[in-house]
Amino acid sequence: MAIWLTKDSKVIVQGMTGSEGMKHTRRMLAAGTTVVGGVNPRKAGTTVDFDGTELPVFASVADAMKETGADVTVIFVPPQFTKGAVVEAIDAEIPLAVVITEGVPVHDTASFWAYNVAKGSKTRIIGPNCPGIASPGASNAGIIPADITGTGRIGLVSKSGTLTYQMMYELRDIGFSTCVGIGGDPIIGTTHIDALAAFEADPETDAIVMIGEIGGDAEERAAEFIKTNVTKPVVGYIAGFTAPPGKTMGHAGAIISGSAGTAEAKKEALEAVGVKVGKTPTETARLMREIMSGR
Hints:
This protein is of the alpha/beta class. It has two domains: 11-126, NAD(P)-binding Rossmann-like Domain (Rossmann fold), CATH 3.40.50; 148-293, Succinyl-CoA synthetase domains (Rossmann fold), CATH 3.40.50.261. Helix content is 34%, strand content 23%. It is built from nine helices and 14 strands. Strands 3-4-2-1-5-6-7 form a seven-stranded mixed sheet, sandwiched between helices. The chain has a seven-stranded mixed sheet with strand order 9-8-11-10-12-13-14, sandwiched between helices. Helix 3 runs parallel beside helix 4. The chain starts with 10 loop residues before the first strand and ends with a helix.
């Protein structure tokens, strides 16, 4: 079982013919993902060979969906074109759009998110500036390495791509149902709360790891959600305990303002609702290991 991305998912790649799109389409195919085509209006009607797998290129997301039955798009286009690519995916009403691109202007993200809401939120957006989503043994949409963990019963949601990979590796012997990298920009599509709700509803996810970071109040809001809506054990980690106030650290959204958004405040909010919070990623993995050993 997995959330949002399963073995039956049919994936298209917007920007498949670019260097990053080509590289990661090849990786996704090697991971067993059912990639059914790409989108590039200038190269519509052509095909691209990926080690013996010929994938068609379509003029639009709508065309690709009509011809292939695609229900997931992974977006690898430059920042200045990302808004247009996401709007196209929304107009086509594709169920899941994974926006890998970093450096997308916050105004553009706010615009396409508002557009999605106005159109009825028929498309789940993950990202931008995220590593994507992986359901080990089933499908992989994005840039998450496919060979660092196995199938299991832990759900993972993380703002950080690198920490997503580290947690997957630390708990590789137990394995994961789905790993979701939501991105660390000030405005993102899918949130911690969205993933927590999905994992809570998934009968084959037994426990959840939630990785946050300094800046904003997403983790505090997630703590409130956990308090009233999540019955499964949750283990947390907050990146940025040593970050200086007022300085952007890594992600565009990771900035402490006054006393708001600090790692300590987030840790306290999570612990107040029963979430065990590790001081390091390795300690966080150990806390999860203890929970899973009792199951």
